[in-house]
């Protein structure tokens, strides 16, 4: 027979009460009942043989000796499960942080776009509809590829791309910047490009509206 203090000691071996769960206590209770049962059965049953009673007692003592090990194993599983959960949570936080930082770094400002255009090391793709560009204007040096054509255009062979858009098709290692009216469509185009392997792609979140405002202001100052 095992003392209740032994059960408490086995349960708190890990130094925390986090493992005193109902399932663990029920398991301990079943093992204790198994350990006590042989004596009660020997006294209460008629016709039980001496050899049989002795065997039951031995079984009860074995159960009692195994109880701390059983509780330890259950507690160990609980510890490992908790650690695994924490690691998964940390991984999720890290991925969210990475996605946030990546999304932030993929947006260029007006001044950054001006510098990139002056360096002539990027392709600026305006994803507005053609009629919008004809009516409102465009950023100098940009190529018009409407949003609904972006995916197909980036997967074209270079000859077809050149024939349709009159520009050399960018490779996946080239720097791309997408723009639109106010940043919404250019962000969708950016997501499409990244999914196709154009990991150096960015977008101009201010769009034509911001560009026109800054350009008007700078031209006014120049005059």
Automatic annotation (TrEMBL):
One of its GO terms (molecular function) is thiosulfate-cyanide sulfurtransferase activity. Residues 49-58 have a biased composition (Gly residues). SUPFAM superfamilies: Rhodanese/Cell cycle control phosphatase (SSF52821). Residues 39-61 are annotated as: Disordered. Pfam families: Rhodanese. Residues 118-220 form the Rhodanese domain. It comes from the Eukaryota. The keyword ATP-binding does not apply. The keyword Transferase applies. InterPro entries: Rhodanese-like_dom (IPR001763), Rhodanese-like_dom_sf (IPR036873), Thiosulphate_STrfase_CS (IPR001307). Keywords: Transferase. This is Sulfurtransferase. It comes from Urocitellus parryii. The lineage of its organism: Eukaryota, Metazoa, Chordata, Craniata, Vertebrata. The gene is Tstd3.
């Amino acid at each position: 027979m095992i003392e209740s203090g032994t059960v408490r000691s086995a349960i708190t071996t890990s130094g925390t009460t986090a493992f005193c769960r109902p399932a663990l206590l029920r398991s301990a209770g079943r093992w204790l009942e198994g350990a006590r049962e042989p004596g009660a059965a020997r006294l209460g049953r008629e016709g039980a043989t001496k050899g049989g009673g002795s065997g039951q007692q031995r079984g009860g003592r074995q159960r009692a000796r195994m109880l701390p090990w059983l509780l330890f194993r259950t507690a160990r599983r609980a510890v490992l499960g908790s650690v695994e959960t924490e690691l998964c949570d940390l991984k999720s936080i890290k991925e969210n942080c990475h996605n946030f930082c990546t999304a932030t770094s993929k947006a260029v400002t007006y001044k950054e776009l001006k510098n990139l255009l002056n360096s002539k090391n990027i392709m600026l793709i305006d994803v507005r509809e053609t009629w919008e560009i004809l009516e409102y204007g465009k950023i100098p040096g940009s190529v018009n590829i409407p949003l609904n054509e972006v995916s197909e255009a980036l997967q074209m062979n270079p000859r077809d791309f050149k024939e349709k858009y009159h520009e050399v098709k960018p490779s996946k290692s080239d720097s791309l910047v997408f723009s639109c009216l106010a940043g919404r469509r250019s962000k969708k185009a950016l997501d499409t490009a990244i999914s196709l392997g154009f990991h150096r792609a960015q977008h101009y979140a201010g769009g034509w509206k911001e560009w026109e405002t800054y350009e008007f202001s700078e031209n006014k100052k120049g005059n």
